[in-house]
UniProtKB/TrEMBL annotation:
Keyword ATP-binding: no
Hydrolase listed as a keyword: no
Species, as recorded: Paenibacillus contaminans
Keywords: Signal
Signal sequence, start to end: 1-34
Lineage per the UniProt record: Bacteria, Bacillati, Bacillota, Bacilli, Bacillales
InterPro entries the UniProt entry points to: Bact_solute-bd_prot1, SBP
Protein name: ABC transporter substrate-binding protein
């Protein structure tokens, strides 16, 4: 299997549904910053014993690291270079780390500036693997395979198969990738269960028409509601609460579908046009936010207080927990059941169902070729894989945050990762995976959530998981694109955004939208022709990887 993966090194997270799957906007909205005091430099975190994962190097040295906060800002008073969590990494490697941690919003700009400056720190974290790979091929990063092969500490979390997936096209292992195998699989339409039950006679809508009727009913009862909106995020202007109808039509923006043996852009499908026509109607009725095409994160977040009804998001974002329900305390977000009847234009129901996620994310750790001590820089990476850091991030301190009964960790008060003074540390789970929070979150939720609410959450995740298992992985997670296709994809995404927005807002007719689709095919069709060729040339390997749609 490793050989198959070596031939199929992925270009992951090209579509909006995968971008910052790190921790989505929902997490940023739902967590208020709070103050906390960091531990002292030079000592073990919170007075804990010295790390036992590896022999500690004798001489303590200074090293630099660049990393993002993945959307989780540090609480006031917390020093990124001196707190109980990062101190575990420092003590493991016997280093004093000086961290530069730009926010998720500024990360790409700061990362690009750092790379273009030619002055790199010892260790780098990024979720832009394509850019990092290019720089690695130009000498910026070292190959880490030799270190990995001798490191049971890292191998505990990152399998050889994951390493093969992260391998560069040039055959180098610059990246130690973040795993994504521990969390719930798939994505779907998640909705305000409390609002749906209130206005839809205590039951879920079963058709697209019933969802539209519900939207109209709520808008009539509460005219100030902002039931549907969107947020501009890079090249993607069609996100989250703009997407449910596209999901039910099996044609999410910026994605592909394998149909009749070809990889096609969803933008070119009749199902996409049908969803656009619905959104055009929602816009004309005032159900879709009039400013949907220009909202930034702050304005989009504020709309959640105005009965934002539903969105498309990943299952890993809705693991039951005791996190405070900001900004709406009474909100209960649950994954909506599959429709009983799908639109007649939908070619096959399977296109409206979810698939599984790849075993790694775009996140990764790299060692600069400019470091003066490669072995010690590797010890820093191992520090991020230490069991001690894992337990402190996800469970806290034994006796204070959890107890152990019959070999099982049990949260003391059900707060768990809901503690905003500690939750920020989840962004340090770079070699465990953010999704590994599932077990401690559910353990905490069992102590505080109502049983019926918890069961609804678990049932929703289970349904998506079964769909994902049935449908396998998505082919576009494994496609290797040409340089020209990679360069043109952002441009193609902007084209999709503009044409869709113009049609929804009535700036162009649907006949003119058809012309836009034809023009798109002429300008960007080669991207999907390349993808089809790659899929067919590597069909058996892709099938071995769990990509079932190659036969669709």
């Amino acid at each position: 299997m490793a050989n198959d993966m070596g031939r199929l090194r992925n270009k992951m997270f090209k579509s909006k549904r995968h971008s910052l799957k790190t921790l989505t906007l929902m997490l940023s909205i739902s967590l208020a910053a709070a103050g906390c005091t960091g531990g002292g430099k030079g000592g073990n975190a919170e007075g804990s014993p010295a790390p036992a994962d590896s022999a500690k190097p004798k001489e303590r040295i200074k090293m630099n690291m660049f990393m993002g906060d993945s959307g989780l800002n540090y609480p006031e008073g917390v020093d990124p270079s001196d707190n109980p969590y990062i101190n575990i990494v420092e003590d493991y490697a016997n280093v004093d780390l000086q961290l530069e941690v730009p926010s998720a919003q500024d990360f790409q700009t700061k990362f690009n500036l750092m790379m273009s400056s030619g002055k790199l720190p010892d260790v780098v974290h990024t979720w832009f693997p394509s850019e990092a790979e290019k720089n690695g091929d130009n000498g910026a990063f070292i190959d880490l395979k030799e270190f990995y092969d001798k490191s049971p500490v890292v191998q505990k979390w990152v399998t050889p198969e994951m390493m093969e997936l992260a391998k560069s096209k040039s055959g180098h292992y610059y990246r130690i990738p973040m795993p994504a195998a521990a969390g719930p699989q798939g994505q779907g339409v998640v909705a305000r269960y409390d609002i749906v039950m209130k206005y839809n006679d205590g039951k879920w809508p079963e058709t697209v028409e019933e969802w539209i009727a519900l939207l109209r009913k709520i808008k009539k009862a509460e005219p100030d509601s902002v039931l549907m909106s969107s947020m501009v995020s890079g090249d993607a202007g069609l996100t989250y609460t703009f997407l449910p109808f596209f999901n039910w039509y099996g044609a999410l923006p910026y994605t592909t579908r394998v149909q009749d043996g070809k990889v096609v852009s969803t933008f070119t499908l009749p199902e996409y046009k049908a969803a656009v026509e619905i959104m055009k109607q929602m816009y004309s009725e005032g159900i879709l936010d009039k400013e949907f095409a220009t909202n930034d994160a702050a304005k989009y977040g504020a709309n959640f207080k105005k009965n934002m009804l539903f969105m498309v998001n990943g299952a890993n974002q809705y693991i039951p927990s005791n996190r405070p329900k900001f900004p709406v305390p009474e909100a209960e977000w649950q994954f909506a059941p599959a429709l009983k009847e799908y639109p007649s234009v939908l070619k096959d129901v399977k296109y409206a169902q979810t698939k599984g996620q790849p075993p790694i994310t775009a996140h990764g750790l790299y060692i600069s070729s400019q470091t003066k001590d490669k072995e010690r820089a590797w010890k820093v990476i191992e520090g991020f894989a230490s069991q001690q850091l894992h337990d402190l991030i996800f469970w806290g301190k034994e006796g204070e945050d959890y107890t152990v009964a019959d070999g099982k960790k049990v949260p003391v008060d059900g707060e768990g990762l809901a503690n905003t003074k500690k939750y920020f540390a989840l962004h340090l789970a770079l070699l465990f995976g953010f999704d590994r929070s599932k077990e401690p979150n559910i353990a905490a939720a069992e102590k505080v959530l109502k049983k019926d609410e918890l069961q609804r959450s678990l049932d929703g995740l289970n349904r998506l998981g079964k769909e994902a298992e049935t449908n396998g992985l998505a082919v576009n997670s494994f496609l290797i694109s040409s340089e020209n296709a990679l360069l043109k994809t952002p441009e193609a995404n902007k084209y999709i955004t503009q044409a869709t927005v113009e049609a929804v807002m009535g700036a162009i007719t649907m006949e003119q939208f058809d012309q836009k689709v034809q023009e798109f095919g002429k300008k960007y069709g080669f991207i999907y022709e390349e993808a089809t060729k790659y899929m067919n040339d590597n069909k058996q390997q892709l099938k071995n990887m769990g990509v079932k749609e190659v036969d669709w």
